[in-house]
Specification:
Helix content: 40-55%
Number of helices: 10
Number of domains: 2
Oligomer: single chain
Strand order of the largest sheet: 2-1-3-4
Distance between the termini: 37 Å
Radius of gyration: 17 Å
Structural class: alpha+beta
Bound molecules: glutathione
Largest sheet: 4 strands, mixed
Shape: globular
Strand content: 5-15%
Length: about 230
Amino acid sequence: MAIRLFELAGADPARVFSPYCWRTCLALAHKGLAWESIPWRFSDRDSIAPYGSRTVPVLLDGDRAIVDSWTIAEYLERTYADRASLFGGDAARSATLLIKFWTERTLHPLLARMIVLDIVDVLDERDLAYFRESREKRLGGRLEDLVADRDRTLVTFRQALDPLRAMLAQQPFIGGESANYADYTVFGTFLWARGVSPFRLLAEDDPVFSWRDRMLGLFDGLAARSVGFAV
Ligand SMILES: N[C@@H](CCC(=O)N[C@@H](CS)C(=O)NCC(=O)O)C(=O)O
């Protein structure tokens, strides 16, 4: 049976914008595996409950259900070990964990404070009340207030990217000469933004801008072809 993936979508089922789901899509493409996307909305909680999850991505592979993007990446690496490696070995897998937590604990909160209000505009109507309530609780304020100062947040966001910028001035990808799961992890953040917001995050002369362009082109433009804002 084909691999299937529950992934977060907006009102338009083709607008997939979860940073975590994007990591999984790119990991599947990296492994050369085909999959069928199942667009999922926050209000579709019941459809993933049988798999013991409250969040997406949820991957279905034959009779197995795998939950959580990192667990899925490890599952794919183990199960499809004869295909291109996602991490490039155990030591690199460990270093990728640092990239994951940096992305989630430094980049995501900053990005949320710039784009969270824009998400409201692309969501399915059924998700609106839950999204606003849960995100205002999580981020600690009205969505309008959180993004009011986003030009200042942008300065902090760009500063936070500095280690990545320095690395990309020396090599084309975090993985070295080619992209790997560390790249997909950080790139997921930019695809989240691209899916929901016209807000411009990167200057064109930034090495991170060129890297994002290279990433958009991977796998025959898998990410570039997705519904989103071209910024
Ligand atoms: N640690 C999880 C996080 C996944 C996650 O938070 N997904 C969000 C979408 S981006 C979600 O499903 N949220 C459900 C909700 O907020 O109710 C992973 O890496 O898969």
